[in-house]
Structures are given as structure tokens and as C-alpha cells.
């Protein structure tokens, strides 16, 4: 992590940059869900023949698979490189309080909390260290890091 001149460490990210990163990640996930559906439609076309049709899964299956895809995307990104595509575009990195990567178990828990309770971000303006509720539970931090 880069340390600003005269500072003790990277500055914690605020609600606006984190919110924009989250919206960008939602767009990535929508594209991924569309690609998965198109892939399933292509496999069905190869197996059963024309015409091509997008799958029409039940609402609960769509919701569950979307939740799982979102949790895996976030958790794997945070555990592997500390940032998602949205985080990278906004110059953010998710770490533990000491600045190290979270690891897979804590990343999975944080991702599940973020996807299930996205309004946890609302706590950021009221927190002295700009922590969302998910950060408090998992003991994580989101900081600016343009490397």
C-alpha cells in the first residue's frame, strides 16, 4: 500500500467511492449472468436443436444463482487480489485493519454480508474509521490504493 506524504497510512474510502464501485460490480455481475444464460442456451441448442432460446429458470433459482455468483465474484476477488473490477476503477482495496489480504474465509463472510445486506454501507458516514457494518463484523477496511 502507498502511504501519503505526512500520513500514517492510506485513507479509508468513503461512501460515494464505495457506492460507485458497488454499482460497477453490479454491472459486471449482470453481464456475467447474461453470459451464463447465453451459454446454457447455446448448450441447449447443440443438444436439442433449433430454435435458440434463453433459459427461463424459476424466480427462486434465478435469485439463488445470482446470489451465489455475486458472493463468489466478490470473495474470490478480495481473497486473491484485494479488489474487484469496480474497486480497481475507483482505486480501492479491501484488506484487514493491518493492510493484509483478508483470506478466503473472511472474504466469503464479507461477500455474503455485502450481498445479503447491501444497506450496511449506510453506516459509513457515521463511523469514525469509515467502516460499513460488514467491515465491523469481519474486521476489514476499504482504503484508497491507486497502485
Automatic annotation (TrEMBL):
<feature type="transmembrane region" description="Helical">
    <location>
        <begin position="108"/>
        <end position="126"/>
    </location>
</feature>
<keyword id="KW-1133">Transmembrane helix</keyword>
<feature type="transmembrane region" description="Helical">
    <location>
        <begin position="20"/>
        <end position="47"/>
    </location>
</feature>
<keyword id="KW-0812">Transmembrane</keyword>
<keyword id="KW-1003">Cell membrane</keyword>
<dbReference type="InterPro" id="IPR051791">
    <property type="entry name" value="Pra-immunoreactive"/>
</dbReference>
<feature type="domain" description="RDD">
    <location>
        <begin position="13"/>
        <end position="137"/>
    </location>
</feature>
<feature type="transmembrane region" description="Helical">
    <location>
        <begin position="59"/>
        <end position="81"/>
    </location>
</feature>
<dbReference type="Pfam" id="PF06271">
    <property type="entry name" value="RDD"/>
</dbReference>
<dbReference type="InterPro" id="IPR010432">
    <property type="entry name" value="RDD"/>
</dbReference>
<protein>
    <submittedName>
        <fullName>RDD family protein</fullName>
    </submittedName>
</protein>
<keyword id="KW-0472">Membrane</keyword>
